[in-house]
Amino acid sequence: MLKKSVFNFLTSTKSFSKMLSPLESAKQAAAFKAVDKHVQNNYVIGIGSGSTIVYAAERLAERVSKEKLNVVCIPTSFQAKQLIVKHDLRLGSLDTHPTVDVCIDGADEVDVNLDLIKGGGACLLQEKIVASCANNLVIIADYTKDSVKLGDQYKKGIPIEVIPMSYVPIQNKIRNRFGGDVNLRMAVAKAGPVITDNGNFILDWVNFKQSDDWNQVNTFIRMIPGVVETGLFIGMARIVYFGQADGTVKEQIFNARNK
């Protein structure tokens, strides 16, 4: 059993305050709109990870209670599973529900083509698996994640999940091919590196040169032996809701002609 303090840390945000900051208001607005527009009765729903998803789970629980919706929730991480449990939502898995109607997830940065950087919370592998099973990937984010090009605003790098024994060769291969710095992500509350839900390491590729063909970059990195997955989500999102500081929401739809 999780201690109550740990459980609360995993599943809470500033929503305990009646007066949300502009940033939290933006997250809440995006999350509520996505859940209201894209969730229907009898849906299988992928529940993403991150601070904005907390509001999505909250809104989903409200709708399930008020409208008596029958939905199944597929988690993308330990945090997502705890949110589902906290709100008494029906927990499912890809074993029993391999096709997901809609996946609602956050992002660290979104460009004009709706290509994404994800994985700041080290959940990128399971997030991408669930997203790949979804008929519709809906991204919710605040205004700080809205960029023209990937790397314009998000400076923490592109996360790459790797098998532990391979991280040094992978660092060298990425640096030699693309430049930049490739850092092993270190844990804060423990000694040593961050360990993902899957038992792997995370590399953060920072100071990279911005690309006009992220699909090519993503393919090259994924082909390196030992790379499990990258935090580049290319051509996967179909719609993004950017919450604004005033509580309004900017909607951006995928346009194949921009690719």
TrEMBL record:
Alphabetical list of SUPFAM superfamilies matching this protein: D-ribose-5-phosphate isomerase (RpiA), lid domain, NagB/RpiA/CoA transferase-like
InterPro entries, alphabetized: NagB/RpiA_transferase-like, Ribose5P_isomerase_typA_subgr, Ribose5P_isomerase_type_A
Isomerase in keyword set: yes
Species assigned in the record: Pyrocoelia pectoralis
Name used for this protein in its record: ribose-5-phosphate isomerase
GO annotation, biological process: D-ribose metabolic process; pentose-phosphate shunt, non-oxidative branch
A Pfam family reported for this protein in Swiss-Prot or TrEMBL: Rib_5-P_isom_A
Enzyme class, spelled out: isomerase
Family label: Belongs to the ribose 5-phosphate isomerase family.
EC number: 5.3.1.6
Lineage: Eukaryota, Metazoa, Ecdysozoa, Arthropoda, Hexapoda
Entry GO MF terms: ribose-5-phosphate isomerase activity
Pathway assigned in UniProt: Carbohydrate degradation; pentose phosphate pathway; D-ribose 5-phosphate from D-ribulose 5-phosphate (non-oxidative stage): step 1/1
Catalytic activity: aldehydo-D-ribose 5-phosphate = D-ribulose 5-phosphate
Keywords, ordered alphabetically: Isomerase
Cellular component, GO annotation: cytoplasm
